[in-house]
Amino acid sequence: MMLNASSRFDEHGNLINTRGSVLNITARKRAEQARNKLIKELEAKHKELESVLYAASHDLKSPLVNIQGFGHELSQSCNLLRSALVGKKKSDNIEKAVDIALNKDIPDALDFILTSTTKMDSLLSGLLDVCRLNTAAVKIGPIDMNEMMADVAASIEYQVANAGATVEVEQLPPCLGDPSQINRVFTNLLTNALKFLSPCRPGRISIRAASRVSQSVYCVEDNGIGIAPEHLDKIFEIFYQLDPEGRRGEGIGLAIVKRIIDRHNGRVWAESRAGEGSKFFVALPGA
Ligand code: ADP
Fold first, then answer.
1. What is the maximal distance between C-alpha atoms in the chain?
2. What SS3 state is found at 226?
3. pLDDT, tens only, 6-22
């Protein structure tokens, strides 16, 4: 409500009358709120698009440079081989050139080319995956998280055994979400927990949850290598990796997790101590 009032007084300061008007501005306020929400959403989308575009053009460049560089090397080796063989009997020199080209340079170059194209292929697949998530329908329904987590844990049983780790799942409250997308979220978080275990101690992963007002908050905790505080916000950005040379992934998993949880109006965040382990929290609407 907006209240407007004005009073009239005579020359002695006595009140003559007061006029007022009351305006119902609920609709205006609602429209303003809706507009602000839209502006915020647009800004967030714009930012997201910018960083995806940047990361795509930046990160796809380095495998491409490798392909070009080693492609040239390969063609030079072939030239060398060809000119060495033209109309000549094989001398020791030719033997040597053929040997270097055929047994070292060409296989090495091809190896780099193949590694780079494989990398590029998975980067592109990941990028497409992220883009597809924006258009995929979200079919929200109640999810029995005990059942779901049992499925997720079963699907990674082999990797868990291989890593000599243990996974402990407590009783979990239900939530509202798209079952296949939420399954993907926890599969990514558990796979990461396994991937980044510490070689210094047996791996322990635990999954627990708490019910808050209209929300279920799940936590995936590991005792792995941990994440330094300055990286904690960035790990949810696409292609962000603490150790890109470690070749343990593509830096896409957590971007997918965040996108799915955002589309569920939920929240995902991480707490960690480098060298000690990490906790990933996921808050979803309660069922
Ligand atoms: P990927 O695992 O493919 O590298 P993600 O997007 O899943 O990509 O994760 C981004 C980065 O966040 C990882 O490269 C790693 O450095 C860090 N990270 C994710 N989960 C964990 C974890 N449980 N423990 C330590 N570091 C992690």
1. 127
2. coil
3. 888 888 888 888 888 88
